[in-house]
């Protein structure tokens, strides 16, 4: 390997255009549609719309998604 290999490689890297980083904030925000709360007013579960997907969140974790909100409402009813 030549002594200049690293220098050539570094020069080539600097000349390449910068790659854009994927940002988490670029995702569509979730719009809440139904929220289940306990006696203290804390949110236990929620149903929201993100783009065209309906999401069911229980305890801060996404537990399911669907194209139609009816299965999510049925799951929320059984909690």
From TrEMBL:
Q: What is this protein called?
A: Uncharacterized protein
* Ranges annotated as biased composition (Basic residues): 1-21
Protein origin, superkingdom:
Bacteria
What organism is the protein native to?
A: Stenotrophomonas chelatiphaga
From the UniProt entry, list the residue stretches annotated as the region Disordered: 1-26
């Amino acid at each position: 390997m030549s002594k200049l290999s690293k220098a050539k490689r570094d020069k080539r890297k600097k000349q390449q255009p910068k790659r854009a980083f994927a940002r988490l904030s670029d995702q569509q925000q979730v719009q809440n549609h139904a929220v289940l709360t306990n006696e203290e007013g804390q949110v236990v579960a929620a149903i929201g719309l993100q783009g065209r997907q309906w999401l069911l969140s229980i305890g801060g974790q996404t537990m399911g998604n669907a194209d139609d909100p009816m299965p999510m409402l049925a799951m929320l009813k059984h909690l």
